[in-house]
């Protein structure tokens, strides 16, 4: 468990060191501050939110996905690519809700594994909710970045704060639902296209 956490930390550090110009700019500093504030707010809000019906479905599915990735639990025997293991992890029936796309559930599972299992920083419920909070933070940073560049720095900060404080978005950002994950991945696609035109 700790090896995986160390690998993630090293990858993040390498990514940050490869982009030193961004972090030294005003945009980079403001974006980092927004990210820290957003994660902090969602971490606090996640603790004060009651158990939802989605928690059970998506946390269980996320746990299966991570167990499959790591070859743990029911996936210790045989190849991960055996039909039975693939079906058990990715096509599970009740209570895993298999018809939904897996990106959000994988984020929930990875956050649950990292924050609850590997580092034991928090409970399983809060850790799983942090997976969606991280996707919400990504979306807020993308909105901030594109608005900063296309309109103005002030508009970039205002857009990020407006999105963060939107009531439905705020609630969905710290519970394991798929709404924010879908918005984040859609917007990431649009952002990548926009960035590709500029680069």
Describe this structure in words.
- With 199 residues, the protein is mainly α.
- Helix content is 76%, strand content 0%.
- The chain has helices at residues 2-17, 20-24, 26-47, 53-70, 83-90, 102-118, 124-150, 153-164, 167-172, 179-198.
- It is globular, with a radius of gyration of 18 Å.
- Mean pLDDT is 80; it is low at 1-6.
Order of helices and strands: HHHHHHHHHH
Parts with pLDDT < 50 across at least 5 consecutive residues: 1-6
How big is the Rg?
A: 18 Å
Indicate the structural class. mainly alpha
Number of strands: 0
| Range of helix content | over 70%
Main β sheet profile: none
- Percent strand: under 5%
Brief overview:
The chain has 199 residues and is mainly alpha-helical. The protein is built from ten helices and no strands.
Q: Helices, strands, pairings?
A:
Layout: H1 2-17, H2 20-24, H3 26-47, H4 53-70, H5 83-90, H6 102-118, H7 124-150, H8 153-164, H9 167-172, H10 179-198
Helix pairs in contact: 3-7, 3-8, 4-5, 4-6, 6-7, 7-8, 7-10
């Amino acid at each position: 468990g700790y090896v995986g956490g160390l690998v993630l930390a090293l990858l993040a550090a390498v990514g940050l060191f490869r982009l030193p110009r961004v972090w030294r700019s005003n945009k980079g500093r403001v974006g980092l501050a927004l990210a820290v504030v957003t994660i902090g707010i969602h971490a606090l809000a996640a603790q004060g939110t009651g158990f939802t019906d989605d928690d059970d479905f998506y946390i269980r599915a996320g746990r299966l996905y991570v167990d499959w990735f790591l070859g743990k639990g029911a996936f210790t025997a045989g190849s991960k690519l055996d039909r039975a293991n693939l079906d058990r992890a990715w096509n599970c029936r009740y209570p895993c809700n298999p018809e939904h796309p897996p990106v959000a559930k994988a984020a929930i599972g990875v956050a649950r594994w990292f924050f609850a299992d590997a580092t034991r920083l928090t409970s399983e419920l809060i850790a799983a909710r942090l997976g969606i909070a991280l996707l919400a933070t990504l979306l807020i940073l993308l909105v901030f970045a594109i608005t900063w560049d296309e309109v103005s720095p002030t508009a970039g900060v205002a857009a990020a704060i407006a999105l963060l404080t939107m009531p439905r978005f705020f609630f969905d950002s710290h519970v394991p639902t798929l709404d924010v994950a879908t918005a984040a991945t859609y917007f990431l696609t649009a952002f990548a296209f926009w960035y590709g035109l500029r680069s």
